Amino acid sequence: MEKKGNFLYIQIFNQFKENIENGIWEEGSQLPTEYELMKTYNVSRDTIRKSLHKLSQEGYVYRQAGKGTFVRNIKSRYKLTSLESFTEQMKNRGLVPSSELLSVTVETPSKRIKKYLELKDEEKIYKVERIRKADNEPMCYEITYITEKLCPDIDKFIDKETSLYRLYEEFYKLKLDYGDIFLEAENCTENLCKYLNIPKDSPILKMKCVVYLENKTPLYFVESFYIGEKYVFFASMPRI
């Protein structure tokens, strides 16, 4: 008998996700049919379909018309439909996040950064350069520009273990609302290749993001350069 409750499909989704993350369902393999899954988990077709849909939304699987559902090659997935820190991304995928802190400086912003952060001429920013890692392997090179007046003295609290999101939300009590994200593909420069330990001209994904507070004030602007072979960006977009 199928258990009652509107959220049974979440329990089944979590079991499916564990099958993938634990290698029971291997990369590139085809999932059992809906009927087989119904019998295995003793639930309805509707529950299986909802669970598979969420699995697809989260970037774990993809469907091929007339063939079935398959496990994606496991890359770190950056979900574009929610604002999530690098630390949260990696922990959610069972990886250990860390950073190599390259520099933290107080600067007068360029015109470009000033425009993104809507700053006045006399306002300063903190510039934080880091190499973000998962299980001690480089994942991306990141430059974050933080509005100084919103996070005074934040440079005193940043080290290789720091989650900036925790500082924003827990120390400065700021309420992050949303982010505008821009993506483009590039070839890796010589300096970036050294930072990320990848061959010259390797593909990278450049992400620019401005994050706003509830009152629509920009808090920070970040440029992240992700190793193309280690990342997939995805979004579930309804038709409106």
Automatic annotation (TrEMBL):
Keywords: DNA-binding, Transcription, Transcription regulation
Keyword DNA-binding: yes
Record has Ubl conjugation as a keyword: no
Domain HTH gntR-type: residue ranges: 6-74
A Pfam family recorded for this sequence: UTRA
Ranges in coiled-coil conformation: none
Protein name per its UniProtKB record: GntR family transcriptional regulator
Species for this entry: Tissierella simiarum
